[in-house]
Amino acid sequence: MMYELYENMMYNLPSFYQESKVVKNLMLEESNEFGELSLVMQDLLLQFFIATATWGLVYWENTAGIPTDLSLSFEDRRSLITAKLRGTGTVNKTMISNVASSFVRGSIVVHELPLNHEINIEFIDENGIPANIELIKQALQEILPAHLQITF
């Protein structure tokens, strides 16, 4: 990429500059700097989206009011942030499904058992119960009223 940028910069100069060693060196260094700047800008852009953020997850966690836990994987941290942002508003079956599905890479079904004051979440794909079940429980406990129990 850097060489293409260098070639493009040289091509756009007047012909009498294209033979100068000083100008060639200057354009080579400038193309390297612009190339590095482009990479930094691309990385910065990735931080604006939860699905692609890495070092920017700290800012997303701060916005969502979640304490940063660097021992968790990027995927688990992204799931916590997404669940927190989805878990605002009136708690209903759809919200519970949205929050739980932010952690699961498969399909789920939410069953309401009002007589038992229970919500049952069923994982209906070949993956079964996900490894991060404790994070799912934690996120759902934060949004559910205290009288409701969760089962999986």
Largest β-sheet summary: 3 strands, mixed
What is the total domain count? 2
Mean pLDDT: 88
- Oligomeric state: single chain
State the total count of DSSP E strands. 3
Strand order of the largest sheet: 1-2-3
Order of helices and strands: HHHHHHEEHE
Tell me roughly what share of residues is in helical segments: 40-55%
- Share in β-strands: 5-15%
> What structural class results from the helix and strand content?
mainly alpha
Apparent shape: rod-shaped
Evaluate the radius of gyration.
25 Å
Number of helices: 7
Q: What is the CA–CA distance across the termini?
A: 50 Å
Low-confidence stretches: none
Considering the chains and any ligands shown, give keywords for the structure.
three-stranded mixed beta sheet; 152 residues; mainly alpha; 2 domains
Report on this model:
The chain has helices at residues 2-11, 15-18, 21-46, 57-64, 74-86, 93-101, 133-143; strands at 108-113, 118-123, 149-151. The chain has 152 residues and is mostly helical. It folds into two domains: 2-46; 72-151, no CATH class. The protein has a three-stranded mixed sheet with strand order 1-2-3, with helices on one face. Strand 1 (108-113) and strand 2 (118-123) form a beta hairpin. Helix 4 (57-64) runs parallel beside helix 5 and helix 5 (74-86) packs antiparallel against helix 6 (93-101). The model has no long low-confidence stretch (mean pLDDT 88).
